[in-house]
Design brief:
237 residues; alpha/beta; Rossmann fold; six-stranded mixed sheet; 6 helices; 6 strands; globular
């Protein structure tokens, strides 16, 4: 399903213009507070190079079912069991923008899923690394875990679609955080394949979770999807 050649990577992947990363140390874009506007309005947060078998999101979004969790030192601020956590992995900033909006709507805690060894900020190299991790089934070490994980009963899990699957770093996170008994709402950004195989990946990683309807947005439509995100969150509340 995946090709190793760089020419193939470039052909299947989005254009550089759609996947610009505003230079930052490490690979993750930090948005100030819960600001809704992504740092790069035109960037794609999904290395969506492998679209075979993916469900294309009509008019930029699609709603389906699945699960996942995490928190940004915010675990200390969780009051009691029943708290809500928004856990997100974002490479370019688009998925983080969606996560920030959800946090704003729910007044929930935010946790950034980050690799212990930061991913490269180079687009072509990132494609290669993401593909190599999937082929080798590598589980990169995460930089930190969620404090007071048991205090959260509802998890909103955010991620980009990479090569038609859940990024391996998110699988690492799920392997270290037991979602059994928790309600999980997945949300993602992509370049045209929607959730593709991400939902089945989450189901495999979280067999004991109660996976609910998810939200899938095209990366280039994030800044204009505020009302859709709000509506989805409202239905889940």
């Amino acid at each position: 399903m995946l090709s190793a050649g760089k020419g193939r990577l470039s052909a299947m992947a989005m254009s550089r213009r759609d996947f610009v990363l505003a230079g930052a140390a490490g690979c993750v874009v930090a948005l100030a507070g819960c600001a809704w506007t992504p740092r790069n309005a035109g960037t794609q947060d999904a290395t969506d190079a492998s679209r075979g078998g993916g469900r294309a999101g009509s008019s930029g979004t699609s709603t389906t079912s699945s699960a996942s969790p995490s928190t940004d030192g915010a675990g200390a601020s969780a009051q009691a069991a029943g708290g809500t956590l928004v856990a997100v992995f974002s490479w370019s900033g688009n998925t983080l923008a969606v996560a920030n909006r959800i946090v704003e709507d729910l007044h929930a805690d935010l946790f950034r899923i980050e690799p212990a060894v930061p991913y490269t900020s180079d687009y072509d190299e990132m494609l290669r690394v993401a593909q190599d991790e999937q082929v080798a089934k590598t589980l990169p070490r995460i930089a930190a875990g969620v404090q007071n994980w048991d205090k959260y009963s509802t998890i909103y899990l955010g991620f980009p679609t990479w090569w038609g699957h859940l990024p391996q770093i998110v699988k690492s996170f799920l392997s270290e955080h037991d979602c059994s008994g928790k309600v999980v709402y997945p949300f993602n950004t992509h370049a045209g394949s929607g959730f593709a195989s991400c939902l089945s990946d989450i189901a495999d990683a979280c067999p004991g979770a109660d996976v609910r309807d998810g939200l899938s947005l095209r990366g280039d439509s994030v800044s204009s999807s505020t009302s859709e995100i709000d509506s989805w969150v409202s239905r889940n509340a």
